């Protein structure tokens, strides 16, 4: 790792610690996780304390009404575990229902795109297998922030204000999230006593309290009141699950790991598989050649992901064929040095989210991501619970026969993905980049920065990014120079104007030195977050 080989504009240095490290998008949440580590908890305990605090202090992005995924290195088991805590469509939600109501594509807001919230069942699965502390202990800090108030941080305050119109649509959302008729300003105190009471109920009665009884009844009623079809039975039936991570060997002992579908981690692995066949290290970092190859690889990865990803419980996803050496060679051969592709899916044989990563002294590492999907999700707040509900169903397809076509009990194509890198079979990095369809692109770019160019985590996150949008359309961050922009334009890339309002994601990363055990962390300079260690 070379701390001084690259320099990008940033307010931050890498954080280096020995006994534990937490990196996430809001400093109060990072500190909540660090407090758990200092009190003797492990990385799994700290991750749940961190994400529960994020549910309070970053409510535009996450909450207990959303979904979660995780990659967890268990030191006790000596292996990487995958956790899928994404909820399915209600039993009454069918493609014919949507088409009968006149929809040609899935609506983004309101009751119809609300899928069963899976996050809390994910907390349960992780803590019951790997945790050492009780939910009552881990929820103490978020309960206090929700009850007594917390100061809103700058980026979150701006995101909150952008959702004011959505939040003003329904009385419960307006009451909870727009006190005094507006979004809270940065540095202004905000409290959510209704959510504090909900968290207190979870602390006292356990995970089932969200899925059975009064809280579940309020969730289901709020969804149906806004045009959805969710019932209490849909909530009661839900369970998260352990899954086997997908893995590709990259080079020099490094392997990248993602979760299998219904998440879009496959898109990142497809792009990484293609990119590793080029001499990226031989290209000047940040050159037109460098960006061209990564953009083209990402287009190909996305074109296959969008064509084939669905819920594997209801639709076959040809993962092995897509990741095969033969298919990778075929896709890589489509990339021409001098011209940009118009991406199309091959035929193989056979926007608001929170991310956190935590490592402890015992060797555990957690890569955890949780989301409502779009800002404040569906726009629905469940009665008097203070819970905002996700709109994850907006990613379902209404195309007949598509692997992602909506169906009862089916989980939608999911944008949120945690990332993990091992080196010589040992845990090396937990990382992720939140931000809708920017996420696989962020995994590709930050992962290449870490592995190919030896950047420390903070530098890898500081580096300017691209965001491929569709066809040949791509956005580049302003720090990418005019000569590179001009050359990419000559090759056929349709670049958005410099400074266009496009998201480039928000990442966090922690690396564990395999010899000393020292932890090196970084936090997204484009967000409010922090990496903190002990």
UniProtKB/TrEMBL annotation:
The active site is at 353 (nucleophile). It holds the Pfam family G_glu_transpept. It catalyses: an S-substituted glutathione + H2O = an S-substituted L-cysteinylglycine + L-glutamate; glutathione + H2O = L-cysteinylglycine + L-glutamate; an N-terminal (5-L-glutamyl)-[peptide] + an alpha-amino acid = 5-L-glutamyl amino acid + an N-terminal L-alpha-aminoacyl-[peptide]. Keywords: Acyltransferase, Glutathione biosynthesis, Hydrolase, Transferase, Zymogen. Pathway: Sulfur metabolism; glutathione metabolism. One of its GO terms (molecular function) is leukotriene C4 gamma-glutamyl transferase activity. InterPro entries: GGT-like_enzyme, GGT_lsub, GGT_peptidase, GGT_ssub_C, Ntn_hydrolases_N. GO terms for biological process: glutathione biosynthetic process; glutathione catabolic process. Cleaved by autocatalysis into a large and a small subunit. Its EC number is 2.3.2.2, 3.4.19.13. Gene3D superfamilies: 1.10.246.130, 3.60.20.40. L-glutamate binds at residue 436. This enzyme consists of two polypeptide chains, which are synthesized in precursor form from a single polypeptide. Belongs to the gamma-glutamyltransferase family. This is Glutathione hydrolase proenzyme. The lineage of its organism: Bacteria, Bacillati, Chloroflexota, Ardenticatenia, Candidatus Promineifilales.
